[in-house]
Design a protein that fits this description.
Layout lengths: L2 H25 L9 H20 L9 H23 L8
Helix pairs in contact: 1-2, 1-3, 2-3
């Protein structure tokens, strides 16, 4: 298994999670919301799943396009999280 896929997907998931927290933090009036590790961990789990899926289907990480692949994995995390939120509603940790 190519661990690079999983690592790049995790980095994309971390970027997505931090940007989502920052968006909510910047838009909310005082008092600012605390960092929710449960939501953060749920996003990382999605990133790990996408990385494993990418490794299983044979996606190769190339040095030349690692930035683009990072953005693609971040977009995939966003897509999967939104689908999970749509199907599971408030049962998905990051839907609140």
């Amino acid at each position: 298994m190519d661990w690079n896929n999983i690592i790049i997907a995790i980095i994309g998931a971390v970027g997505f999670a931090i940007s989502g927290y920052w968006k909510n933090w910047a838009a909310s009036p005082p008092p600012k919301p605390p960092f929710d590790f449960y939501k953060f961990f749920a996003t990382i789990v999605v990133g790990v799943g996408i990385g494993i899926f990418g490794a299983l289907i044979g996606v190769t990480i190339t040095e030349q396009y690692v930035g683009a692949q990072l953005m693609i994995y971040a977009a995939a995390v966003t897509l999967v999280e939104n689908i999970l939120k749509g199907f599971l509603g408030t049962r998905w940790p990051s839907s609140t």
